[in-house]
Design brief:
By secondary structure, this protein is of the alpha/beta class. It has a single domain (24-249), classed as Rossmann fold (3-Layer(aba) Sandwich), CATH 3.40.50.1000. The chain has ten helices and seven strands. The strands form two sheets. A five-stranded parallel beta sheet has the order 5-4-1-6-7, with helices on both faces. Helix 9 links the parallel strand 6 and strand 7 (229-231). Helix 2 runs antiparallel to helix 4. The longest helix has 22 residues, at 39-60. Mean pLDDT is 90; it is low at 4-22. The chain binds magnesium ion. Magnesium ion (MG) binds at residues 86, 88-90, 198-200.
Length: 257
């Protein structure tokens, strides 16, 4: 090989090393790496669940403690207590799926997501199991309101995944709308909802779609967080990034230097 072609080959190899095949997914690598390898992610998640446990004790000792905005308990008979949690990145850790995408230079698709769900091998978010077992021990019913689709029978892959992880709770999966408010309302009609736990604003309130409108929602409801609403960190994805889509230039222009 001539020196000229050797130089060309080396230049091509170094370009490959610097820019992955699909550089559009490159920006998600740090988020997945943080979730999977950092002590800080684990500490964040544990901190949320320890605080939620203390809040559960306060809630059980406080009459008329209400977490769901959809609830209307004024003058109502006492109802049995319940907590509502989201599943993905709240109880179930799907970072391995996100890692597969990042390594392959692929974006999220319904097809690859469904395949991952069928494998029933999501892990547990740190601190979740301890909280859930404590809630059950205190006689609190646990509901998961998730936008996964489930069959409802014993062979359902999400149910199998939860069973294998040894966590209690009943599934309320997506049937029509992804908006969780009607399903929260359903639970609030039967139970006194003490806490909401999620990783996305939509797990608490129907989230607005622009960053400015979401900021206004935080001004309105922000004081509920850490009190009766508890949110897990999720830097990998969420309704917060839908506004920007896959448009890196839109994301860059939203940064405030
Ligand atoms: Mg989630």
């Amino acid at each position: 090989m001539s020196r000229f072609f050797l130089a060309l080959t080396l230049a091509a190899l170094s370009a490959t090393a610097q820019a992955p095949a699909n550089s559009k997914t490159y920006e998600s690598v740090d988020a997945v790496l943080w979730t999977q390898t950092s002590a800080e992610y684990q500490a964040n998640a544990r901190q949320v669940y320890v605080a939620a446990r203390a809040a559960l004790d306060r809630a059980l000792a406080t009459p008329r403690w209400v977490a769901a905005l959809e609830a209307n308990y004024v003058g109502a008979q006492p109802l049995p207590p319940a907590v509502i949690l989201d599943l993905d990145e709240t109880v179930l850790d799907n970072s391995a799926y996100r890692a597969q995408l990042a390594k392959a230079g692929q974006r999220f698709t319904e097809e690859t997501w469904k395949k991952w769900v069928m494998e029933s091998r999501a892990g547990l978010v740190p601190g979740a199991r301890e909280f859930l077992l404590y809630a059950r021990m205190r006689g609190v019913t646990i509901y998961y309101i998730t936008n996964r689709e489930c069959s409802g029978d014993a062979s359902d892959p999400t149910r199998k995944n939860l069973q294998a992880l040894g966590v209690p709770g009943a599934l309320i999966c997506r049937t029509g709308t992804s908006d969780k408010s009607p399903r929260r309302s359903e639970v609030a009609g039967m139970y006194h909802v003490l806490l909401l736990i999620g990783d996305d604003l939509n797990d608490f309130v129907t989230a607005a779609t622009t960053p400015e409108a979401r900021q206004k929602q935080m001004e309105q409801y922000g004081s509920l967080f850490g009190d009766r609403w508890f949110i897990l960190p999720n830097a990998m994805y969420g309704s917060w990034d839908r506004f920007y889509g896959d448009d890196l230039s839109k994301k860059l222009s939203a940064l405030k230097p």
